[in-house]
Amino acid sequence: MKPSKYLLAIDIGNTNVSMGLFQRGMNRPLHHAHFLTQKAMTHDDWMVRYEVLRKRWGLRENEKEEVVIASVVPEVNYEMGHLFEKYYEILPRFLCTADVPLEIHYDYPYEIGIDRLVNVYAVAREYPSRDAIVVDFGTATTIDILSDGKAYEGGVIIPGMITSLRALTERASKLPHIDLSLPPTVVTKNTIDGIRSGILHGHGAMIDELVRRITAELQWENPLVIATGGLAKLVQQSSHRIDLVDTHLMLKGIYYLWMAHA
Question: Using CA atoms, how far apart are residues 90 and 68, in angstroms rounded to an integer?
């Protein structure tokens, strides 16, 4: 069977489901979309959403894209997979640890979220032979370590910013709804900005210090620090150590794995 021209890369996370349409030979998505992760959605619900995307993205009815999925939410996997089998006669591929061609130095490799490995693999492909620290601002903030562009060395897991903010507002009944934006000063003059400062300036300072400690522990000189996730650009404004932000890192990692197995 002739390989498809297109890849639909799907990242099923605890907060969002991200989809990116790639064309073979191009490492950036032609189109992308994000949905809230809802465990109760059926394959028919997903079909309605995806059919709208297919039409907006200009995919022909007889075009069969290949589908590769990285998921950390098992409850969504069956319905998502069944969507493509039932309506498009496409058998999606769900990634697992063994699919990622990295040396993995970890006590229990199959405990690692596939999203973390795919992010690191994307960095390994785009920045070969580099020591790198990959920070993903999601439901949890994860920090993952890539040594010499080929080995996964473990990392750090921290409650995410939105997770922390929700925990605070749910416990403190007088606090209003707060949208995250970076206040211009660390010291603020009102409660809302005080929380924004604590979350964003605090997270940026924490990342900077953890990068310093990791660099010293591993005796590295100048690792690349790359951030991803919806809030990455916001935190970059309060960090002195984030070198660059790539919000498509996870989808690109799925693309590189698709190309590697073509």
Answer: 10
**Is residue 189 in some structural domain?**
yes
For residues 115 and 70, the answer to whether their CB atoms sit within 8 Å is: yes
pLDDT digits (tens, 9 = 90+) for 165-221: 888 777 665 666 677 888 889 999 988 888 889 889 999 999 999 999 999 999 999
- How many beta carbons lie within 10 A of that of residue 190, not counting itself? 9
pTM: 0.93
Q: Verify whether residue 148 is a known catalytic residue.
A: no
Q: Please indicate, yes or no, whether residues 85 and 177 belong to a single structural domain of this protein.
A: no
What length is written for the chain?
Answer: 262
Domain that holds residue 216: 129-247
Query: Which pairing describes strands 6-12 and 16-23: parallel, antiparallel, or unpaired?
Result: antiparallel
Active-site residue, selected from the candidate residues 115, 131, 136, 144: 115
Find the CATH number of the domain harbouring 232: 3.30.420.40
Q: Is residue 22 part of a domain?
A: yes
How far, in Å, CA of 185 to CA of 117, rounded? Answer: 36
Q: What is the DSSP string of 115-166?
A: HHHHHHHHHHHHSTT--EEEEEESSEEEEEEEETTTEEEEEEEEE-HHHHHH
For residue 146, being part of any structural domain is answered with yes
Please check whether residue 116 lies inside any domain of the structure: no
> Which tokens sit at 173?
């009944």
Distance in angstroms (rounded) separating the CA atoms of residues 102 and 124: 9
